[in-house]
Amino acid sequence: MKLEWYSAPSSCSYKDGTLEVVTGDKTDYWRETFYDFWRDDGHFLSREVEGDFSAEVTVQGDYEALYDQAGLMMRLSESHWIKTGIEFTDGQMYFSVVVTNNQSDWSLVQVPVDTGGIRIRLTRHHEAIRVQYLNSENGTWIPVRLAYFPPTKTVQVGVMCCSPERAGFTARFKDFVIGPPIARELHD
Predict the structure, then answer these.
(1) Half-sphere exposure for 105 (CA within 13 Å, toward CB)
(2) What is the 3-state secondary structure of the chain?
(3) Which of 129, 135, 119 is nearest to 58 (CA)?
(4) How confident is the model at residue 49 (pLDDT cuts 50, 70, 90)?
(5) Mean pLDDT value across the chain
(6) Could you tell me if residue 81 is inside a domain?
(7) CA gap 51, 57 in Å, rounded
(8) pLDDT, tens digit, for every residue of 61-76?
(9) Residue 115 has pLDDT above 90, yes or no
(10) I need a labelling partner for 19 at 20 to 30 A (CA). Which of 45, 145, 172, 188 fits?
(11) Number of separate domains in the chain
(12) Do 23 and 43 form a contact (C-beta atoms < 8 A)?
């Protein structure tokens, strides 16, 4: 799978199936809401995907500073994108989702620390985006968000990481895949 950088990091390497990225200084994706600024310089390694899909990756990181984050992103433009993953806030790990349709919104749910990383999934069903993470204890996918996103023929999909308060956050991505969408059923 051929991937391209949007805002390439200062350092990255690929070894034993793991992509390791070291973030640049004060990188982020955000548009206006609450903070009154726009940032569009986080690190995003992606490819173009047509139609509906499911993307998954396992993320780990050396989370230390406020808002250190790593996960998945889908992007249509600087004003329409979704990023989701693990974010360090108030000294704890959270599963974070930012949906941006002109302005950004932010939702969080606390997750247990897992030294092996946390597997996350982003699924597109036309205009609906489903965001989940895998509960490693019982193997079930935990739903976190069902969000609207403008339906288009293609979007960019890939892994992202940011460190809005510093440089040098190390993020690791393993087993990144993009494939057909999971079934539309929301409940077993």
Answers:
(1) 7
(2) CCCEEECCCCEEEEECCEEEEECCCCECEEECCCCCCEEECCEEEEEEEECCEEEEEEEEECCCCCCCEEEEEEEEECCEEEEEEEEEECCEEEEEEEEEECEEEEEEEECCCCCCCEEEEEEEECCEEEEEEEECCCCEEEEEEEEECCCCCEEEEEEEEEECCCCCCEEEEEEEEEECCCCCCCCC
(3) 119
(4) very high
(5) 94
(6) yes
(7) 19
(8) 999 999 999 999 999 9
(9) no
(10) 145
(11) 1
(12) yes
Locus of tokens 């329409």: 80
This prediction has a pTM of 0.95
Domain range enclosing 108: 4-10+22-179
Q: Which residues contact 7 (CB under 8 A, 6 or more apart)?
A: 24, 27, 40, 41, 42, 43, 44
In a domain, 15, yes or no: no
Here the tokens at position 40 are 């569009």
* pLDDT for 19 beyond 90: yes
Distances (CA, A) of 32 to 71, 126, 137, 142, 163: 21, 26, 38, 29, 18
Which residue(s) pair with 112 in the sheet? none
Q: Could you tell me if residue 186 is inside a domain?
A: no
Q: How many CB atoms lie within 10 A of CB 145?
A: 18
| Backbone φ/ψ region at 85: left (φ over 0), alpha (ψ -120 to 50), beta | left
CATH number of the domain enclosing 148: 2.60.120.200
